[in-house]
Amino acid sequence: MINLIGGVAAFFLAASPLHAGELSAMAGESIDLGGFRGVVHYTDENDGYRVIATIAEGETGIPLRFSATLAEGQSATISVPRKLGEPEQNLEISRSGDKLTVTEVGPVSNQQTGAIAE
């Protein structure tokens, strides 16, 4: 477990900071969602871009991994809750053509969420 946390921490330090913009394949970019920090990167797979984000709360939090495969025109949102009464922080990862962009977005309301169709 200590080796896993150490490896994730080293990857966090090696990644460059992300300021809402395009990602390059296999280039880790730092993300910051309030008290949660981590990295996001993607690989170009046969069925789409496989996006992987690893985040942890603070320096001692247990790392969590988020993974999604995005086809043309698709997006995924990572949402981090905050204290009662404060809006959550959201990071949207979207694919348009051969570009993958990461953008910090406002809170997601119940009206904006829906069922996922397969």
From TrEMBL:
Biased composition (Polar residues): 108-118
Region (Disordered): 87-118
Signal peptide start and end residues: 1-20
Key words, A-Z: Signal
Protein name, UniProt field: Uncharacterized protein
Organism annotation: Mesorhizobium mediterraneum
